[in-house]
Specification:
The protein is built from nine helices and ten strands. It starts with 20 loop residues before the first helix and ends with a strand. It is α+β, with helices and mostly antiparallel strands. Strand 3 and strand 4 form a beta hairpin. The protein folds into two domains: 168 residues, Pathogenesis-related Protein p14a (3-Layer(aba) Sandwich), CATH 3.40.33.10; 100 residues, no CATH class. The strands form three sheets. The protein has a four-stranded mixed sheet with strand order 1-3-4-2. A three-stranded antiparallel sheet has the order 5-6-9, with no helix packed on it.
């Protein structure tokens, strides 16, 4: 399959829209999906593609670039794959490929959509002309507004065939990576790594709300001999997704059983008794349990 290049559209109409980012993204999604020129019979807005599109819009606004290939050298196809979205196996997997993205910059959603419609290459992509783009029934949109940036308003439209990955849900862990890291950083991440040497891998840093670039180890638990309890002064995130925070107990260091905290007001508190002489804390991906 040959590489496809979608040119970038730049419009210099700079003014505030008065709407929040999500409202503008919703407006952009509607304008595209229900446009009279739209050739796709069905369009499914995908949260993973939304996340990638939003990351691209924010990156362009804050890192001062307006191109399909960013400063890290990654194109949109690779970004989509890094997010866990399964593109067709027969597509090439070059670092800078683009078969999925259209970009726009300037004032209003209506202006962006009108300019995409007026560009032959963008029109084929955005409105699903032909068998190839017509098969892109899943899509995502992203918008960023940064007043002191070059164009202030940054728009991204991503499309792809249905997700071929085994897991199609948007994982909070993956959202956290895209919210706080560049594509180069994400591509280099091994989930088992302990980047800052504090004993926590990437899953643990996410689950406990820590900074993976700053050494902040887990504090030691405290014991209350009167209440016969042990408390780990930790507050795991609520949105753990497939990650599990598990406290286990044992009386012989061989057989381990899970223990549910009965009090979370000051951390994770579990009872002490003769069956619970030893404790350990595990943070695991559900598929690895």
């Amino acid at each position: 399959m040959r590489s496809l290049f979608l040119p970038t559209m730049v419009f210099a109409m700079l003014a505030s829209t008065g709407l929040g980012n999500e409202a503008i993204e919703d407006q952009l999604a509607r304008e595209i999906a229900y446009h009279s020129a739209q050739q796709r019979a069905e369009m499914v807005r995908d949260p993973i593609l939304d996340m990638v599109a939003r990351h691209k819009a924010r990156s362009m606004a804050t890192r001062d670039f307006t191109a399909h290939i960013g400063p890290d050298g990654f194109g949109p196809n690779r970004a989509i794959r890094l997010a866990g979205y399964g593109l067709p196996d027969w597509w090439p997997d070059n670092k800078d490929d683009n078969h999925t993205e259209s970009l726009g910059f300037g004032y209003s959603v209506a202006t962006v959509v009108r300019e995409w419609y007026g560009s032959a290459a963008h029109k084929r992509h955005v409105f699903g002309e032909g068998d190839f783009f017509g098969s892109h029934t899943h899509y995502g949109v992203g918008y960023a507004y940064v007043p002191d940036s070059k164009y202030q308003h940054y728009y991204v439209f991503l499309s792809a065939p249905p997700n071929e990955a085994a897991t199609k849900e948007l994982e909070p862990y993956r959202t956290w990576l895209f919210d706080h890291h560049t594509l180069r950083q994400i591509a280099a991440i091994n989930d088992a790594d302990d980047l800052d040497g504090d004993g926590l891998n990437w899953h643990a840093e996410f689950a406990l709300g820590h900074d993976p670039y700053v050494a902040d180890p887990i504090p030691s638990p405290t014991f209350d001999l009167i209440a016969r309890s042990l408390t780990w002064p930790l507050t795991p995130r609520e949105d753990l997704g497939s990650i599990r925070v598990i406290i286990e107990h044992s009386k012989d260091l061989e057989l381990w059983k899970p223990t549910s905290p009965y009090d979370k007001t000051k951390g994770l508190t579990v009872p002490l008794d003769e069956e619970r002489g030893y404790f350990r804390l595990q943070i695991v991906w559900a598929a690895d349990e």
